[in-house]
Amino acid sequence: MPSAEPNAMTSDMALVTAIRSGDQGAMKALYDRYSSIVYSVALRVLQDTGAAEDVLQDIFMQFWRNPGAFDASRGNMAAWLAVIARNRAIDALRRRRPEDDIEDVAVSVEHDLVGEAERSRTMDKVRGALQAMPAAQRSVLEMAYFEGLSHSEIAGKTGEPLGTVKTRIRAGLLLLRKVLAA
Amino acid sequence: MNVHEQFAEDLALYALGALDDAERQKLEEHLEACASCRRELELLRGDLSLLALTTAGPKPPVRAQQRLISAIAAEPRLPVGAPAPERRQRSWWTASGWSALGWAVAVALVLVGIGLLWQNSTLHQNLASLRAQLADQGSKLEQANQTVATLLDPEAIKIELVAVGNKPQPRGKAIYQRRNRNLIFFASNLPPLPAEKIYELWLFPANGGAPIAAGLFKPDARGSATVVNPPLPEAVEAKNFAVTLEPESGSHESPRGTPVIVGVGE
User: What is the pLDDT of residue B137?
Assistant: First the structure.
C-alpha cells in the first residue's frame, strides 16, 4: 500500500524505506530530488544528452531493483549517486561493461550535502579550490575524473612523466580536502 | 615508506579508476586485508563526489522521468526486508509434556481431520470453478492480443472511408483513458515525411500545463500510423491532442514544429 505522497521534507532514508516496500511514489520523489545530479554528471562525462539519459535510467532502475544498495551509515545519497553516475558514465564512454555493482560503492562525505543550500555552499568551496589550482593540475584531475583516462594515458597525452601525473592527481585531491576542511 | 604507505599513494588513482590493470589488482588484494585503506578510499570517493557535484545544473528532459515511471510500473516489487512470518511457534505445552493433554489433543486432531476432509472437498470444487474462469479469461486475453496485433501489424491495411467525391484529408483519432493512462491513437492520410523529420503526438493537459510528448511515429506508405500506450505521467486530464512535424533528432520537450492535425477532447 503506497504511503502518503512524499514531499520535499521527507528524508532520504524515509524514501528509501518506502521504496524497499515497493512504493513507486517514493521512487518518483527520489528521482525528482536527485535526477538532476545524476544527469549533470553523466552529461559532463558523455557530452551527449541521449547517452546521459540512458545512464540516468540505468542507475535509477538499479536502485529500484536493489534499494538496499545504499548504506546510509556509510554515505550521503547525493554523493553516492554522483560517484555512481560518474563511474557508469565513464563505463559508457569507454564502451565497457560496468565495473562494479551500485552496492559495491561506499562513499564517505563529511560535509552536509542533504539540503540544496548546504550543497550549494560546499560546491562554491570546491569550485573555488579548483579555480585556485594551477591549470596543469586541474587539467590532469579533470582528465582523470571526467574523461576516465588512466595515469599512463594522461602522461601520453600531456607528455609529462608518469610520476608527475600521479603526484599532480594526488596533490590535487589533497588540496581539495584541505580547502574543504578549512 | 612502508608497504601500507605505498598503497595509500595509489588509492587516489584507484578511486579515480586511473590505475593500470596490474596495479589495480595488487591494490585490491591489499584492500581486502586493510581496513585503514578501505576507509581512506571511502573518503577519497567522497572528495571526488564533490568534484562530480560541481557539474550540477542541467536538468534531464521530462521524458526521462516518464521513461523511468513506465519502467518501474512494469517491474512492481513486493515489499522487501519485512520480517518473514515465523513458520512455527514453540508452544508452552510442548515443554510440559504430551501426557497431560493427550486425550484432549487426540479428540481435537480427529475433529481437525474431519474438517480438513470437508475443506478438501470444497477446495476441489473451488479449483474447478477457478479453472473455468481462467480458461474464459485466457480466451478473452487471446482475443485482445489478436486485436492489438492487428492494430500494430505494419502489414495490416488501414483504409479511411470518406463521402464519395471527397478528397481524403489527414485525420487522427485518439482514445484516451486517464485512469489507467491508456492511449490509442490512429492516424490516416498523413503526408509522407520529409527527410530527417518525424511526426510527434502531443497531449495537452486540461489544467493548461505544458504539452506532454505522447510518442514519435512514422506513417506507412498510405499515410496510416498507430500509437499504442506511450509512456505518460499519472492522472493527467487531457483537453486536446495534436500531431506536429518535428526534427527526427530533436529533443521533443515541447512542440516546436508545424501542427499537422489537431483535435478537441471529447
Answer: 76
**Contact criterion met (CB < 8 Å) for B19 and A151:** yes
Chain A residues within 8 A of B17 when measuring between CB atoms: 87, 90, 99, 144, 148, 150
Determine the CATH number of domain B3-53.
Answer: 1.10.10
Residue A103 has pLDDT above 60, yes or no: no
CATH code assigned to B171-262: 2.60.40
- Distance, C-alpha A54 to centroid of its chain: 16
The full set of domain ranges for chain A reads 1-109, 111-182
- Tell whether ipTM is more than 0.85: no
pLDDT at B2 over 90: no
Residues of A in contact with B62 (CB under 8 A): none
Encode B92-158 in three state secondary structure: HHHHHCCHHHHHHHHHHHHHHHHHHHHHHHHHHHHHHHHHHHHHHHHHHHHHHHHHHHHHHCCCCCC
Q: Which pLDDT value is given to residue B155?
A: 67
Q: Do B19 and A150 touch (CB under 8 A)?
A: yes
- Three-state secondary-structure class, residue B43: helix
CATH class in words for A1-109: mainly alpha
B99's CB contacts (< 8 A; 6+ apart) are none
Which chain A residues have a beta carbon less than 8 Å from that of B50? 79, 109, 111, 122-123, 126, 176, 180
Please tell me the predicted confidence (pLDDT) of residue B4: 64
Beta partners for residue B217, in sequence order: B199
pLDDT tops 60 at residue B231:
yes
pLDDT value of residue B103 = 62
Say if CB A42 and CB B50 are below 8 A apart: no
Measured between beta carbons, the chain B residues lying within 8 angstroms of A16 are none
pTM: 0.54
pLDDT of residue B89: 39
- pLDDT-derived band at B87, boundaries 50, 70, 90: very low
Cβ pair A21:B80 closer than 8 A: yes
Choose which CATH entry (2.40.10.340, 3.40.190.10, 3.50.50.60, 1.10.10.10) describes domain A111-182: 1.10.10.10
